[in-house]
Write a structure and sequence with these properties.
Cofactor: [4Fe-4S] cluster
Organism: Streptomyces hoynatensis
InterPro entries: Aldolase_TIM, Organic_radical-activating, rSAM, rSAM_sf
Strand order of the largest sheet: 4-2-3-5-6-7-8
Number of helices: 6
Radius of gyration: 17 Å
CATH topology: TIM Barrel
Protein name: Radical SAM protein
GO molecular function: 4 iron, 4 sulfur cluster binding; metal ion binding; ribonucleoside-diphosphate reductase activity, thioredoxin disulfide as acceptor
Shape: globular
Helix content: 10-25%
Number of strands: 10
Order of helices and strands: EEEEHEHEHHEEHEEH
């Protein structure tokens, strides 16, 4: 496909209390925004702590299960962004590159306050926005609502001139959102949504979207300003961002690959003598 260029983002330690923030990946209910490949000889460790994430939700701080966080993400929205991937997806879209985010008991537990701490640190480093994906974020609606409302307030407080925006990926459609009040409350804090299940048979050239049915929906004045110019814009430049996993044991991918791009990457690495194991887009078995 050749459209992913050769410019890749670096990593920084913007964790939320569990060795997070420098190399996790996730999809969003099959939207194929991100995935991961573990390098030779690895058993699939991902540099993440797998404990309870800290406070366990005491004091009204919701517990949330996440696949990981990363800063700076440059392929899932405008500018340098903090990416947060929720764990668990009941949609299980065929062709999803992020199967490792499907299991609701996978990933790790943390709290909303720790994720907001990562957001504060990303803002201090100049983040232009927050992108939340998965997994399916709306499978944990209470935690998602608390995260997005808190992130909006913190962004307005710490970076009023920069006006950081919030982009939320969900595999659900706009009509489905309207039938679930908890979902509507959660998405009400996002400046823009990308909605709809991933359909491998319906590729699209449009930026930040994985298939032609998916819609980019600005929801606020800031969202219309930031995302309105991109409603019909094709992707330009890199569609995938590549980062080394913690400890150098694997490769982590962030973005929306073009059809066949993942296989092309695997073949390119194979020709150079690198064989991938535990690829997140492989079928089980």
């Amino acid at each position: 496909m050749g459209r992913n260029g050769g410019k890749f983002g670096g990593s920084a330690d913007f964790g939320d209390g569990g060795n997070v923030g420098d190399g996790e990946s996730g999809g969003d209910g099959g939207n194929a925004e991100s995935g991961e490949s573990r390098g030779d000889g690895e058993s699939g460790g991902n540099g993440e702590s797998r404990g309870d994430g800290g406070s366990g939700g005491k004091g009204g701080d919701p517990v949330v299960r996440v696949s990981g966080t990363y800063f700076p993400v440059t392929t899932l929205g405008p500018g340098r962004r903090l990416g947060i991937w929720f764990q668990g997806c009941p949609l299980a879209c065929p062709g999803c590159m992020s199967r490792h985010t499907w299991d609701p008991e996978g990933g790790r537990r943390t709290t909303v306050s720790r994720l907001l701490g990562a957001w504060r640190r990303a803002l201090a480093a100049g983040a232009a926005g927050l992108t939340v994906s998965g997994g399916e974020p709306l499978a944990q609606p209470e935690a998602l609502e608390r995260l997005l409302s808190g992130a909006a307030a913190i962004g307005a407080e710490l970076a009023p001139e920069r006006r950081p925006d919030i982009l939320l990926y969900t595999g659900h459609t706009e009509a489905e959102l309207g039938r679930r009040p908890p979902w509507l409350r959660a998405v009400g804090h996002a400046d823009a949504l990308i909605t709809g299940r991933y359909r491998a048979a319906a590729p699209t050239p449009l930026v930040w979207r994985g298939s032609a049915n998916q819609r980019l929906l600005p929801r606020t004045a800031l969202g219309r300003e930031r995302y309105g110019p991109h409603l019909a814009r094709p992707a330009e430049g890199p569609r995938l961002q590549v980062a080394e996993s913690p400890g150098g044991a694997g490769v982590l991918l962030y973005g929306v690959p073009a059809p066949g791009e993942l296989q092309e990457l695997a073949e390119l690495l194979a020709r150079s003598g690198t064989r991938l194991h535990h690829r997140s887009w492989d079928q089980p078995g």
